[in-house]
Amino acid sequence: MWSPTEEEKYGVVICSFRGTVPQGLVLELGETVQILEKCEGWYRGVSIKKPSVKGIFPANYIHLKKAIVSNRGQYETVVPLEDSVVTEVTATLQEWAVLWKQLYVKHKVDLFYKLRHVMNELIDLRRQLLSGHLTQDQVREVKRHLTVRLDWGNEHLGLDLVPRKDFEVVDSDQISVSDLYKMHLSSRHSVQQSTSQVDTIRQRHGDACRMPVPHHFFLSLKSFTYNTIGEDTDVFFSLYDVREGKQISERFMVRLNKNGGPRNPEKIDRMCALFTDLSSKDMKRDLYIVAHVIRIGRMLLNDSKKGPPHLHYRRPYGCAVLSIMDVLQSLSEIKEEKDFVLKVYTCTNENEWCQIHENIIRKSSTKYTAPSSNYGLIISLQLLRGDMEQIRRENPMIFNRGVSVTRKLGFPDVIMPGDIRNDLYLTLEKGDFERGGKSVQKNIEVTMYVLYADGEILKDCISLGSGEPSRSAYHSFVLYHNNSPRWGEIIKLPIPIDRFRGSHLRFEFRHCSTKDKGEKKLFGFAFTPLMRDDGTTLSDDIHELYVYKCDENSTFNNHALYLGLPCCKEDYNGCPNIPSSLIFQRSTKESFSVSTQLSSTKLTQNVDLLALLKWKAYPDRVMDILGRLRHVSGEEIVKFLQDILDTLFVVLDDNTEKYGLLVFQSLVFIINLLRDSKYFHFRPVMDTYIQKHFAGALAYKELIRCLKWYMDRSAELVRQDHIQEAMRALEYLFKFIVQSRILYSRATCGMEEEQFRSSIQELFQSIRFVLSLDSRSSETLIFTQAALLNSFPAIFDELLQMFTVQEVAEFVRGTLGSMPSTVHIGQSMDVVKLQSIARTVDSRLFSFSESRRILLPVVLHHIHLHLRQQKELLICSGILSSIFSIIKTSSLEGDVVEEVEMMVESLLDVLLQTLLTIMSKSQSQEAVRGQRCPQCTAEITGEYVSCLLSLLRQMSDTHFQHLLDNFQSKDELKEFLLKIFCVFRNLMKMSVFPRDWMVMRLLTSNIIVTTVQYLSSALHKNFTETDFDFKVWNSYFSLAVLFINQPSLQLENATPPKRKKILDKYGDMRVMMAYELFSMWQNLGEHKIHFIPGMIGPFLGVTLVPQPEVRNIMIPIFHDMMDWEQRKNGNFKQVEAELIDKLDSLVSEGKGDENYRELFSLLLLEKIEQETWRETGISFVTSVTRLMERLLDYRDCMKGDETENKKIGCTVNLMNFYKSEINKEEMYIRYIHKLCDMHLQAENYTEAAFTLLLYCELLQWEDRPLREFLHYPSQSEWQRKEGLCRKIIHYFNKGKSWEFGIPLCRELAIQYESLYDYQSLSWIRKMEATYYDNIMEQQRLEPEFFRVGFYGRKFPFFLRNKEYVCRGHDYERLEAFQQRMLSEFPQAIAMQHPNHPDDSILQCDAQYLQIYAVTPIPDNIDVLQMDRVPDRIKSFYRVNNIRKFRYDRPFHKGPKDKENEFKSLWIERTTLTLTHSLPGISRWFEVERRELVEVSPLENAIQVVENKNQELRTLISQYQHKQMHGNINLLSMCLNGVIDAAVNGGIARYQEAFFDKDYITKHPGDAEKITQLKELMQEQVHVLGVGLAVHEKFVHPEMRPLHKKLIDQFQMMRSSLYHELPGLDKLSPACSGSSTPRSNVLVSHGPMSPESIKLVHRHSPLNMLGSVRHSSSSLSSHTSSETGNLVILTDSSVGETAEDMYHMQASPSTSSLSSTHSAPSQMINSAPSSARGSPSLPDKYRHSREMMMLLPAHRDRPSSAMYPAAIMENGQPPNFQRALIQQMIGPCKPCSDPNLSVAEKAVPAAPSSWSLDSGSREALPFLSAHAGSVLAPPVPPRSLPHGHYSLHFDAFHHQLSDAPPALPARTLRKSPLHPIPASPTSPQSGLDGSNSTLSGSASSGVSSLSESNFGHSSEPPPRTDTMDSVPSQAWNTDEDLETPYLPVRYSLSEPDVLESLKSQPCRSHSAPSGVIPQDTMDPPALPPKPYHSRLPNMENEEGMMIEDDDKHRPLHRKVSQPVSAGKEEQARVAWEHGISEQ
């Protein structure tokens, strides 16, 4: 049965419990539990961590602790009954444990280890405290250590400061805010020691000066290692002051044996001394530790003969010194002993022994000898501070070692009353003795005895030094052969006080002979008594004593014999009549000097003092004796304090009239003496005397009389020293007066009470009179008043013994009231007055509520005046905080309403004013430059804030009610409200309290929120309706907003225990304030409109606070605002604008989250639903919500360790949102600059330029002034635009995108020219020229382009389920790119297939990345098709300004034909269109549209063959025009690849597939395409023929066998084709001169819908000069390339190989040259094109049409060279080469696999199963080593897009020649290329610009067709077979129409050709051989502008171009007619093309 527990309430878990039973509570080791019930060995209860979860746990798992239970029952609370410090340590350690581990994770290793050490110490100290075995002192000490460590750790971990009092945590409810503030301050200093704080407070209140802290040196002798003496030694340590030249301490003596160890074995490790009582002044002196070493042994160390061995003498040996100044610093820093080695120097001349230490210190090295080694005395030193009691307590180990306390000579700075001491220090100074007839000087030894009056030698009264016991006789050391020895040895004589009187010292002088006997011969003596006859002791002086002769036989038994003799000169003068016939004769020539110093608390050397104590003996001298008391030294007076006081009062009683004033003065002198710090500790002696020994019952009358007499005379006297002294002594005078009156009362049973009271009243009148005097004229009077004010508060306690509290309070009020106001007194007096008030407030009197009611008004009055004038703020704040402290304490016990009311009336307003002044000062610079340091300003601010808060906290409802009712007018109330709101706002803004003062900050917030609740009703009541005041309301709202946003109130950031603690104590104050704010907003009514838009930002800030309740309260206010603005203006534009502006800055500051976005949308949409303006409202809320999504993404990217890419993407996304959706231009521009900075950081210079260009385009070339913005100064629009242009040009230059910079250069040039700024014009033109040079000379790499899909809901909003194309970095291949993306999104999973993902992936909570390379499709193919444009230029256009990209995937449709795969091999072609072209403002842009088409096997074949033809023509043309020099290998390889492949399969496979009857019958619709394929094959044969002819011309003699083999194979190829293509029999052999039929016809194809197939061009990256990495077969597997393109499966063609390709081995038909058909070095210098793409500006931003031609290039990749293969007879490469190529290229992997590297996907090793290319791709790395330097010209594109087709011809003259036939050229043009409409049936081609026109083909005499994409017609237009109907302008795009440049004619014969064009049939014939164009005009000076968008060409219904009337525009192409063309051939051509002759 479960029963409630009685005792067992609280426990600690000592073993973890897993809670495996039903209802079991899981508990961890160390958790604390509260126990509710028990049952048979089980408890039921809760863990303190999770108080909401109840459960059961085993009783034996719990260690019970005692606890206090309050509120027993269901809701009982349990507090453990243990020391609060222990509880705090436990909680703190638990909190630290979590943070400590985080330190390790954050690599803060240093702090990690320090904290671990401190935690271990805390655990250890806690254990000691819990053990209960410590004394109270030890407990205090342990607690001190604990709290210091707790504070240290909290500070270093950034936790809150804990305010403490006596080591215990204080409860902020129990003390005033001022006290709490002070505790925070002292806790802050506690690590350094809190004493400093106490001192400052004490000084501030003018307390008596504090006691100086004595210092002590602990010295321990470790060893004397340099003891080579071989004799016993005595070492004497003492402290020596160099400046004074004297010892300041006793000596510490150590006796060592000859081995250097202690002579007494018990002293091992105990040879230590404590040099005590050194004052701070001493520590500043130049002190040394001096060690004198005296050996005890033979007379001479090195001479064994001198002296018998049994006789030992004390002989000087050496000395060592150590400067304390040098070691003080290091000793102060460390708390333990530190070792030092002291070298022992020996004396060179014994006569100077007494000065050896000075010589060593002065480094007079001639006078001493350094030791031979570095060893010596090893000592350790430690510096200790504090009085002896404290030292004993703190360092018990030192005293356990038997330390010798070694005192100062003389008294310390502070003489303690109980310190009884009676030491006489005697120094043996020197002696002068006669030689006594000897030839050598004597060795003199002095022996000294202390003898009592009866002649007895006193035992143990001579001490050579501390550390050794005292002895009865002293033997001095002996100086060898010295008759005038100087010893300088100090001896201490601790003679008992009772034996002192009558004792004397006797000195005996002996000569120590070194002869054999070695006896010591007595030859004289001296003596001196210790006390004089008058009772005074031997004075502190040098005494020269008489030396009396004597010998060994002389007897000293009868000391009276010599005591009657004079001992010295003064003595002799005293008794001249000495008989001469005595036994002892004085030796007049000899003398002996000693000096003495008395340190005694019992004996005096002062005659005057003795006279006073024995005044009755000299009755006539009493006046004189009393007068002379002032001259007696303080030490003497305090020693005899009680006796002196007794004597004075006896004298006073003896004759009051006569001696009264003198006694009073003497008393004042003694009292003031005790104020000195040295004697401060004698005040208790005085107090004890007054309480227990004082007996002057009548004294009070005279004391009062004298005191009043002094005060009354203060107005008249000029010199007021006596008066001031009396004022200073006021406290003790009153003590004597009161005690005297009490004694009198007792004796007389209270007689004369009235007289006493009236005399006191009169005395106070005198006091008031003194204080009321105007002291400004008299300086002495000021000092009198100051002295009086200083002493005045000290008398209250005495008065309270005689009078009631009210009476004393009235006295005090009258006195304080009599002081003149601040205006009439000087500043110094002001301070004194306030200090007096402060001490009044601190006095016991003020703690009585009766007295407070009397005193408070006058105190407050003075403070009020000071605060009004801003004077002495620091003292005033101290007084106020004391008052509040007292009132708080009283309020806990009784009623303080009245007092608080007084304070509110007097202080509240002035406090607010003071705080505003201080705060404004501390914000300005004055405070720093002014009188006070900034720290003081901060301290004053803190003090006054705490005072204000104390006052507000004490105020109750009634106080606030009275306060608000007391305002006379609304203006006063308004002023008050503004002040208090302003102070509160500043409190939160300025953060008066440091961040870690959490207790203080929370209390402040609590007081503010309470006060605001009181004041808001007044605000509502007085300032809402007609009296609405915007200023007050605005101030209120600002305060509320600041309050809610305070960092200290954001509980979400706090640890759970801390959060719980705060919520338990205060609740969530943000919610309280939010409710207050909301209700006040609702109270505003129609005045709300005043706060729109001003308060939108602040309120938005409040709603962003992560507190759901605050958000729910505040978000609806925005609906309210929208509603009010809608009512007023008919829209809510202001709300909208402000909300969006502020949202940006607030979210970027880290506020807001996803929940907020959802809540914002939800709450507002809900409210807006009911409104009439709901549509605009909903759209606004939606756009704000979307903005928030983007802002949050942006912030998360910026805040996290995100990569540049993510940040840039995020910024672009946000920027576009501002631009397009909410049209915020300023925000848009801000983000432009942020984006630009990011690009610069990532070194994306081109993108940075494009980004800045966005801003540039918003500006005009005007002189409109622009304000300062971001980092731009205020300047004109023209200047800003110019600066931007220059910067953009600079960035384009850095990004090597010179083509983009050139138009800007021109734009600037036009501006400079119009302004005649020729200097700038010259500069910009030179820049432009430099850019042209750079384009031609500098290497640029072509980037790769990659398509990336981001799928899954875990991606940021701007990426989620979108696909992008990214422009790769230099040298970045697919694998590297993929790695980069995966590292940017470490959570992402790479998808292994290129298929579009399904919904399950799109909606899942994960991240999927799909990456593959894509091929760019250039928009601008004109440049690429122009002849003779260097490839460096074309390369740029191939990869810049690209908006479309393509990706091809081969697949088999239907059953796969085993015999011939080509029958079923289809291509799936995906075309991606981006939102913007690349490059642009980002490296990646989103895909806007994707189109998917399938290319049939036949179309694929057509493209492959056409590509190969193009490639061959280009190469041949380059050799014809000698563009390729020297090495013919490339041509040999190419020809061999095509011819050999054809023989071994090649195009024969296509024949089998498509010319088969079955195929033709099954596919009747493909007839035209089959015809086209046949033509292309025929063309290929012709091209090969021409190629062989060129090859023959250039071939090297050694290669002739190869050439012959090629000719043979070519014949075989032709004959194999002959059966299929009967037209071939007409073809001439390779060297024949007839033209190819293909070159003379225009092929037309059957209709085909444009939707059915959409092919896009793709160019090879290596195709810079128009050629490609071609594969060996003429029907290369470049399946994916359209006709006219040369390469498709280059290194990087990802996903374009057939599926089966992966499973095939290298075909045996691999051509000998197949694998080296690499482009020549100049052609291969571009990167693989699988990943091209980077955004460009949208068309509308292009600022001029120039940009289209000059789009940016990327940096070139270095040229790869080609491999000239070693060729065998059969044309195969040697096996090793083939093997190597195979090995390098490796087996192909699926190209769609995004995990493959680009290199892996680059080159298939075997001919693909869907390609007829019998060779593998080139292996670039291997080949590059064997490059031949060959050039290939570009070849024009081949495919005809559907739409119109037409012809372009180059202009040339009809010149005939007999040269061999040239191959048909595709296009021959020099002017920029204009598109020709394609055949309606040819596949649509987006030409990619890699296929340029055949450079130099005009001179080959062959004219050809060029096809280009020219728009799509939706239906196939009717065929046009002639050109007559096509006017010359039909091919002009509007680019031509807009161009500002005049058209340039490239040939003089253009008009003639125009005529001939009209009459000729539209057929192209081979030009006669040797037709050479003549360029008579220069090309245009500037390239055309690239920026203008092209308008679509308008076509008429017939598919014809609309004719333009502009007849003067020259034709771009001229058609040349061949002179002879056989009719038969023409007819065939006509048949083939279906052309009807006109």
Structure description:
- With 2038 residues, the protein is of the alpha+beta class.
- The chain is 43% helix and 13% strand.
- The strands form eight sheets. An eight-stranded antiparallel beta sheet has the order 25-24-27-28-29-30-23-26, with no helix packed on it. Strands 12, 13, 14, 16, 17, 19 and 20 form a seven-stranded antiparallel beta sheet that branches.
- Helix 28 (849-869) runs parallel beside helix 30, helix 36 (1030-1045) runs parallel beside helix 39 (1096-1103) and helix 43 (1154-1168) packs antiparallel against helix 44.
- The longest helix is centred in the last third of the chain and has 28 residues, at 1567-1594.
- Residues 194-209, 925-932 and 1623-2038 have low confidence and may be disordered.
Question: Main attributes?
Answer:
alpha+beta, disordered C terminus, 13% strand, 2038 residues
Could you list the spans in which at least 5 consecutive residues all have pLDDT below 50? Answer: 194-209, 925-932, 1623-2038
Number of helices: 66
Distance between the termini: 119 Å
**Strands of the biggest beta sheet: in what spatial order?**
25-24-27-28-29-30-23-26
Q: In percent, how much strand structure appears in the residues?
A: 5-15%
The biggest beta sheet, please? 8 strands, antiparallel
Shape: elongated
Write the layout of secondary structure elements.
Blueprint lengths: L2 E2 L5 E4 L18 E8 L2 E6 L6 E5 L3 E4 L1 E4 L6 E4 L3 H22 L3 H23 L4 H21 L7 E2 L2 E2 L7 H13 L5 H10 L10 E10 L7 E10 L4 E2 L4 E5 L15 E7 L1 H5 L2 E11 L15 E11 H10 L4 E6 L1 E3 L8 H7 L5 E2 L6 E10 L2 H7 L1 H5 L3 E3 L15 E11 L11 E8 L21 E3 L10 E8 L3 H4 L3 E9 L7 E10 L12 E8 L10 H4 L5 H6 L11 E15 L6 H7 L8 H7 L5 H6 L1 H14 L1 H18 L9 H11 L5 H14 L8 H8 L1 H19 L4 H20 L6 H13 L4 H7 L2 H14 L8 H16 L6 H21 L3 H21 L3 H27 L2 H4 L4 H21 L2 H9 L4 H21 L7 H25 L7 H16 L10 H11 L2 H16 L11 H8 L4 H7 L1 H14 L3 H16 L5 H15 L5 H26 L4 H18 L3 H17 L3 H14 L6 E2 L8 E2 H18 ...
Parallel strand pairs: 15-22, 35-36
Antiparallel strand pairs: 1-3, 2-3, 2-6, 3-4, 4-5, 7-8, 9-10, 11-15, 11-21, 12-13, 12-14, 12-16, 16-17, 17-19, 18-21, 19-20, 23-26, 23-30, 24-25, 24-27, 27-28, 28-29, 29-30, 31-32, 33-34, 33-36, 34-39, 36-37, 37-38, 38-39
